[in-house]
Design brief:
The complex is a heterodimer of chains A (about 290) and B (about 180). Chain A has helices spanning about 10-20, 30-35, 70-80, 85-90, 95-100, 105-110, 120-125, 140-145, 215-225, 235-250, 260-280, and strands at about 1-5, 25, 45, 55-60, 65, 125-130, 135-140, 145, 150, 160-165, 170-175, 185-195, 200-205. Chain A has about 290 residues and is an alpha+beta fold. In chain A, a hairpin with a 2-residue loop joins strand 6 and strand 7 (about 135-140). The radius of gyration of chain A is 19 Å and the shape is globular. The termini of chain A are far apart. Chain B folds into two domains: about 5-75, Beta-grasp domain (Ubiquitin-like (UB roll), Roll), CATH 3.10.20.30; about 95-170, [2Fe-2S]-binding domain (DNA polymerase, domain 1, Orthogonal Bundle), CATH 1.10.150. Helix content of chain B is about 35%, strand content about 10%. Chain B has six helices and five strands, in the order E-E-H-E-E-E-H-H-H-H-H. Chain B has helices at about 25-30, 75-80, 95-100, 110-125, 135-140, 155-170, and strands at about 5, 10-15, 50, 55-60, 70-75. A five-stranded mixed β-sheet of chain B has the order 2-1-5-3-4, sandwiched between helices. In chain B, strand 3 (about 50) and strand 4 form a beta hairpin. In chain B, helix 3 (about 95-100) packs across helix 4 (about 110-125) and helix 3 packs across helix 6 (about 155-170). Classes of the chains: A alpha+beta (about 290), B alpha+beta (about 180). The interface between A and B is medium-sized, with 32 and 29 residues. The structure holds flavin-adenine dinucleotide and FE2/S2 (inorganic) cluster (2 copies).
Chain lengths: ~290, ~180
């Protein structure tokens, strides 16, 4: 095995192009588990942890440009105002030590259906920036994931950044697991409201082969939400919203939970997300 | 490959490192620093917690090459630092002193990781001039450190005690 340690982003792209089988490593919190347990023996590791560009973030042109290597700790500490739902999700990841290393780029690179970044990125309509020596392209998060561990990223591409639209209304992320820390989601849900455009985004995690959304639930809530006053939903409307979200999931039974439980949990989280978003809306998060 | 970095302020280098090897393996098996424990090798238990450039990480989740040129601080590096603990002339850090005092150690396997992670909590709170962390904050900070023996109560108590000692020291304008 070789350890490739580029010192510039251009070198990293060239290295990935020359050795497409090289495995990028950023925080290492997924890669090292596979190496330690002999699940993977790549020909080369490509260390991205020394590069300045992917470790940076900045607000520009109506969105947050978040470098792929920005850690969960940095997102929680600095970016809650720029990407509230993503920051909520980041706070729910693992433990402080893992949050100090783990990155959004690594979460996207692994493309686990349970990854906590995915529902906020899908719900907010974020874009994933992919770079190679051939050039740079931006893919909507909603089209990035193909299945467990697989995405539209080509073998010679690196994830350089994600672009998260600036918040224009309340956002809520919630996650069900067996304890508060160190838990892979049994199911997760994210709701993002755009008070200007009066549109709604949803993101469903850990309840399908890839992160999902519910266009039906989004259309329903966009029509039903009280955009004037942020009134509490009626019981019936909230239940219907929850049912639409649950219906969009494609869950399976596995060690962490049953498909039926996941649908139930999603319906509950969706209802609560509406109630919480309405409360935030009344408080002025528009 | 050869990997060189500083450990507890000292320049160190390991030879013949396999590129997929973890920082934890290098520390324990190549540099003779067994303080950081290997219990899970999957980031779940926190017993391998070390500082990497001042930030606590699970050493089992860091590729050795990622640590090259960086500063690593292990539990071995805390002891000599002395501290504002209950016995001021002790060579142990205040957190270590408090663990002894509170009886927060049973089998001891989780202790090094907890001590480093608790040290970091105090560095970010009382040592930075802030208030002593409450129980919820302590539990949150230690959520990635598993202990199979103590039931955590004595550990929380130890961190609380260390925080109080350090807070007093800071107010006195003490060394740290
Ligand atoms: C104990 C523990 C608990 C965890 N808990 C959670 C949790 O609660 N929620 C959650 O979502 N995840 C969790 N994870 C998984 C992991 O922490 C996250 O997926 C994290 O975001 C990975 O980021 P990283 O930088 O460490 O990735 P790495 O391990 O460095 O990389 C992960 C994958 O992405 C690829 N990659 C990395 N960077 C790039 C890039 N720039 N371009 C292209 N590919 C890239 C790598 O090749 C690899 O395939 C946990 C892991 C551990 C060990
Ligand atoms: S050995 Fe590293 S976290 Fe358990
Ligand atoms: S004292 Fe035995 S694991 Fe904590």
């Amino acid at each position: 095995m070789e350890f490739l340690s580029p010192s510039t982003w251009e070198e990293a792209l060239a290295a990935k192009s020359g050795r497409p089988e090289a495995v990028p490593i950023t925080g290492g919190t997924d890669v090292m588990v596979e190496l330690n347990f002999d699940r993977r023996r790549p020909g080369a590791l490509l260390d991205l942890s020394r590069l300045p560009e992917p470790a940076q973030w900045r607000a520009e042109g109506g969105h947050l440009r978040l470098g792929a290597a920005v850690t969960y700790t940095a997102i929680v500490e600095h970016l809650a105002g720029h990407a509230p739902a993503l920051a909520q999700a980041a706070r729910s990841v693992a433990s402080p030590q893992i949050r100090n290393r783990g990155s959004v780029g690594g979460n996207l690179g692994s493309a686990s259906p349970a990854g906590d970044c995915h529902p906020p990125l899908v719900a907010a309509g974020a874009e994933v920036e992919l770079a190679s020596v051939r050039g740079v392209r931006r893919v909507p998060a909603r089209e990035f994931y193909l299945g467990p561990g697989s995405s539209v990223r080509e073998a010679d591409e690196l994830i350089s950044a994600v672009l998260v639209p600036a918040p224009a209304g309340p956002q809520q992320f919630s996650k069900i697991g067996t304890r508060n820390a160190m838990v892979i989601a049994v199911a997760s849900f994210c709701l993002v409201l755009d008070a200007g455009a009066r549109t709604v985004g949803t993101g469903i995690g850990s309840a399908g082969p890839r992160p999902l959304r519910s266009p039906e639930a989004e259309a329903f809530l966009a029509a039903e939400f009280d955009w004037e006053g942020g009134a509490e939903p009626s019981e019936a409307a909230a239940r219907h919203f929850g049912a639409l979200v649950a219906a969009a999931a494609e869950p399976i039974d596995d060690v962490r939970g049953t498909a039926a439980y996941r649908r139930h949990a999603l319906a509950v989280m969706a209802r609560r997300a509406w109630v919480w978003c309405a409360a935030d809306y009344r408080k002025g998060a528009r | 490959m050869r990997v060189a970095f500083t450990v507890n302020g000292e320049d160190m280098a390991a030879e013949d490192v396999w590129p997929g090897e973890s920082l934890l393996y290098v520390l324990r098996e190549r540099l003779g620093l067994p303080g950081s424990k290997n219990a899970c090798e999957q980031g779940e238990c926190g017993s391998c917690t070390v500082y990497l450039d001042g930030v606590t990480v699970c050493a089992c989740m860091v590729a050795a090459g990622q640590a090259a040129g960086r500063a690593v601080r292990t539990v071995e590096g805390l002891a000599a630092s002395g501290g504002a603990g209950p016995a001021p002339d002790s060579r142990l850090s205040s957190v270590q002193e408090a663990f002894v005092e509170a009886g927060a150690v049973q089998c001891g396997f989780c202790t090094p990781g907890l001590v480093v992670q608790a040290d970091d909590l105090l560095a970010r709170t009382v040592r930075a001039g802030g208030p002593a962390p409450g129980d919820a904050e302590i539990r949150e900070a230690l959520a990635g450190n598993l202990c199979r023996c103590t039931g955590y109560e004595k550990i929380i108590e130890a961190v609380r005690t260390a925080a109080e000692h350090e807070e007093r020291a800071v107010r006195r304008g003490g060394a740290r």
